[in-house]
Structure formats: structure tokens, C-alpha cells
Amino acid sequence: METPLVSICTITYNHEPFIGQCMDGVLMQKTSFPVEFLIHDDASTDDTAKIIREYETRHPDVVKAIYQTENQWSKGVQIWSKYLFPKARGKYIALCDGDDYWTDPLKLQKQVDFLETHPDYTICGGKYRTLIMGQDTVNEYERPGIDQYPQGRTVNFDDFFDSYLFFTLTVCLRKECVDNIQKYMWCFDDTVYCAALDKGKGFLFPDYFGMYRLHPGGVNASKSRRERLQFSEDFHKDMLPDFGHKSKSLRKRYIRDVIDLRFIELSESNHFLRDYLKIVQFSFSGKLDTFLYSILQMLEKTGRYMSARVKKVFKTLRNE
């Protein structure tokens, strides 16, 4: 069997209604090079694994599945870095979650052609549409500013988090960028993007590459805003030692999420002055180039917090 040029990596769990469409989107790719499809089923309790086995039987040279008997995600195992990336044999890695799917049959060919002819670029992505389950609609979800670049856009490490133009189901990157990614406690999308942009530039195609599906069973669907912000704080804090001094936009992302989280905690606290002073202390503790940003974030959130408190007081008075 030929060595694949691209390894497509997919994580899936209880995606029975969606996994076939995801796999069809991969298998319809028209390429001038061989690919492999590595798919990790995290002990699904529905028929996801059964469907994967059917595809594996029909496409044994392409589909390579890993079936878990115990859910690894619930144990805190990082699936990409432990199970998928080490098995990837391709020069490039493409990603797509099991509930999303590709719609452009030339997606991989376009991306590999670009990366092969632009050695100073390490990662590329594209546009996508959003499918909201429960509604008979398809939304075109645009990242800010993308339509200003009909020929595409170069993304640098220091401006990536300001506009955040990459998304898991659209990216393709050089595998060498993630060879040492297992050293991070967390291995998620931002970890991968930072590892790639640390070694080169990124490119955003103006093409639509796939469909992102929003549904009640999604990973973040059941999480509160506080839980999402707490995860973001822990996740990005893990990246700061290696990438924070290189990317101001990463530090700004971390600052914004931490201040947002602290104000949520403040609204539930019985010690306003003590906890508010902690926010002030954090806001004044950053690097000089993000100092003004940090202070403005604090002042903006303070204004919103006080406005909400005043409205709550007036509502209480009216009801008495």
C-alpha cells in the first residue's frame, strides 16, 4: 500500500445520525495522491461503531478505525495527541469531527497543492456553513472580515486570535508541526493552530469547504457559559509558557476570558470588594503591550456588571 500524503483524523462519539455523512465527505475527495482516514470511536453507545465498521469493510485501504471499549474523553485523555496523530503516516493532517462534514470534493487537493508550493506556510483552512439541527435552515457563518479577501488571506501567529479564522473541519496542516504536541496537558483546536503558526504562516481560502453542525448532543451544547470560560482559562493557560510571549493575540484571548469568568464569579459572590480587587489586580498584572487592552476589558465589564446590579435593584424595588 502506498504511503498516504494526507491523514484525515476524526473523533466521534454517539454520532449515529451524522457519521455516514462525515465519512462520505472524506471518501468523495478527488485527489492525485493517496490518503488515509483515521477515525476514533470513543466507545459510542449507539450504532456509530457499527456504521464505521461497514465503511471500513468497503474501504479497507483507506479507513483505519480505532474502537474504544471505555470512553477516553471522560477520563481526560487527549484523543488527537494520544491515539490519532501518532498513527498518522501522512505528510499532512486534515481534521473533521464526526458530526461535521466536507462539501467540496476538491478540498484536500486545493490545500495540499497550496502547501506543497508554499513551504513558508504550515496550515490552511477555509470557510464553512452552519447547519442548526431542529431548524430547516443553513446559515452562512462568516468570520469577521473574510469577505474582504476574495483571493484568500494570510494569517499570522500574532493576529490569529483577534479574528479567529480557522475552524477544525476546514484545516489542513503539516504533520511535523504536531509531532511534539503530546507535551501539552490539553490538545484541542487552538493547541494545534498555535503549534502550526509557531512554525510558519497560515492561509485562509475563500472557498466553502464544509458544514459545521450545531445540535443538542454537541460537546459544548450542554455547558454553561461559566463552564466554557473555565475550560478556556485552563486550556489557554497551558499554552502561555510556549506561545504567550510570541503571540499577543493569544494573551488577549486569555485576558478576555479570565476577566469574563471573574465577573460571572463576582455576581455569585458575597464578598464584592475582595473579589473585585482580585479582578483589578489581574488586569494590572499583564505585559505592557496588552496593558491598555486589559484595563479596557476590566472597565467595560465593570460597567456592564454595575448596570446589571442597578437594574436588579430597581426591579426588586418595583416588586415590593
How would you characterize this protein structure?
- With 320 residues, the protein is α/β, with parallel strands linked by helices.
- It folds into two domains: 6-214, Spore Coat Polysaccharide Biosynthesis Protein SpsA, Chain A, CATH 3.90.550.10; 225-319, no CATH class.
- Helix content is 41%, strand content 19%.
- The protein has ten helices and ten strands.
- Strands 1, 2, 3, 4, 5, 6, 7, 8, 9 and 10 form a ten-stranded mixed β-sheet that branches.
- Helix 7 runs antiparallel to helix 8 and helix 8 packs antiparallel against helix 9.
- The longest helix is centred in the C-terminal third of the chain and has 29 residues, at 291-319.
- The termini are far apart.
- The model has no long low-confidence stretch (mean pLDDT 89).
How is the biggest beta sheet arranged? Answer: 10 strands, mixed
Uncertain runs are: none
CATH class annotation of the largest domain? Alpha Beta
Rg (CA only): 22 Å
